[in-house]
Amino acid sequence: MAPYCVLAVRLRHALNSGVRRYHVAPVLCQRAKVAMSHFEPNEYINYEKLEKNINIVRKRLDRPLTLSEKIVYGHLDDPAKQEIERGKTYLRLRPDRVAMQDATAQMAMLQFISSGLPKVAVPSTIHCDHLIEAQSGGEKDLRRAKDINQEVYNFLATAGAKYGVGFWKPGSGIIHQIILENYSYPGVMLIGTDSHTPNGGGLGGICIGVGGADAVDVMAGIPWELKCPKVIGVKLTGKLSGWTSPKDVILKVAGILTVKGGTGAIIEYHGPGVDSISCTGMATICNMGAEIGATTSIFPYNERMKKYLGKTGRADIAALADEFKQHLVPDSGCQYDQVIEINLSELKPHINGPFTPDLAHPVSDIGAVAEKEGWPVDIRVGLIGSCTNSSYEDMGRSAAVAKQALAHGLKCKSKFTITPGSEQIRATIERDGYAKILREVGGLVLANACGPCIGQWDRKDIKKGEKNTIVTSYNRNFTGRNDANPETHAFVTSPEIVTALSIAGTLKFNPETDYLTGADGKKFKLEAPDADELPKLDFDPGQDTYQYPPKDGSGQHVDVSPTSQRLQLLEPFDKWDGKDLEDMLILIKVKGKCTTDHISAAGPWLKFRGHLDNISNNLLIGAINIENGKANSVRNALTQEFGPVPDTARYYKKMGVKWAVIGDENYGEGSSREHAALEPRHLGGRVIITKSFARIHETNLKKQGLLPLTFADPADYNKIHPVDKLSIVGLKDFAPGKPLKCIIKHPNGSQETIMLNHTFNESQIEWFQAGSALNRMKELQQKSS
Q: What is the mean pLDDT of residues 470-497?
């Protein structure tokens, strides 16, 4: 049916080019049914509903709307009655689809199985990208992963078949690249169980990272709740050129907003500079918006997106988007809560780190800064790829740099790895010669997977505890994230800068000004890389790695062995007993940064993501205990002995003692992994009290029946000591916007009271009372039946 829409576009163009101008009614395009993806030919894009909802909300609010408002409000469950106030109200939304990566899909599908529903209500997919460890190279690592993870892959494949979920096999590529190539489109609302889901904003979609319980809500056909986001506008002027890349835009923004500056907000890029950025470059910028805590990021629909849609076999979607373009760009005169302006013509290449993605430096300064701070300047490994930077353009620009070095007889001084974003990218860069060039310069091409970016790296060139520097084109560089070595100083930058620095072997090299010495002894300077944003020929799809769900999967059997060490069916959490939480012990008072990597480490622990009891053995092992300055060492208040955090939590649970965690700022930043919420709940935790929370983690805690609370006065963090006991009172009158009292009981018998804030709405309070959001869903199902 798509040709009707194409015909409408051509007819309007023809009539508008004549002397008389005629109006071609959108109804012609409305008759065309355009599929959301090639893989779901009977699931259609519904721009008419988006348009209808936008018009209802615009009339109600009586003001111009930002692009993100249009798409978010365009997906409201009840646009006529929904209360809308940025940063205040909770919206009930109807996303178009769900995507899950294999590490988080295990728990999401286990929760969906527990719901008792026969099939997912919206198009959903599972992507196998997290469980492949980088070791020897692409083919060998993939074979090894398929063997080691056979039980998990079989579970996901059969669960997908039974419940109507598409399954992308291991080797397909990284979830976000697959989404960009196949599922994202202008105006879509997609939620994904990975924090870098906002990557899809590069194609003009609202794509939001969530925990598995949120995904289950959407797959169950239940309206999904999101606090109405604020909107931060980033106005881009000028034009990218030379060594400056799209990655430098988000590295600069991260330096401005910091890791929590985007919390509760959507970052909306606009302005004349947008058109100088490729579609995949826009995706890079949106992807790393997760590192500033943003709900998501988005760009307005433009010709670069249209070009990408066409090259990925979706010209029919582009034609339909052209018809509804007024709803896929911001209204003139719309207002942002904050505006940042960046002149791309003046922007310099950046490199951020170490240990945090918001510590921004111009590449020209990093050598001197590193020497001053005592950071190792010699680069041990350079790594390009990841979901943030593994596009055809990224690989082409890196190859352009490598080709110059080869022409002068040079190879990388540092070890060098390449991670293609998808099977399509791998096959295409092999065909077009980029992979060959990157290998010749000294690179090792890894599997189409996350690999070292998430700690799936069997690193052999250093010992744990050895101080060293790596440079990557990844997104995160938290302590120990890539290789489990807390002394690895990781810096994030663009793929072309990684390549240049790997050739030079040092942070003191600035490719814009410095010279290299060729094999012939002559000095030469690298020219700024230039590469096609898309291949001249069509993409090579490579191997077919997609498993369609059958029309009727009711007869499909899903295996979960009761003796499995990888998978475990879930038992419901206990309901709230209707009483205040009295005399809770403090499991740990955390000092400083505490990301989801600190709460539930990845790397070798990924293999237990489908087994809640086993994965709980990594609870908070990376968090620093304020009492002794150590990781994974806390005082057992009942025995007075120090021991590992998980062991202490298990002891408290065995003794029937409830416990709490005290945290610092932006607690739970980073990954969307809901295991960081499931684990404390499983081991007897009840309350997490912090100065502030990262958005996804706060929601995940609520979903699992925990109480995420914040100090009304952040200075009260200093009033609580690890040896104190805490009581949360007033839970019988628990209500939205009403603070709770916390009584602190000190060992000397004295006590004091502080106030704690929360962001619970009425339905979220019901989650707490029922024991979890899943428990509450089952209660509602029973009532309705």
A: 96
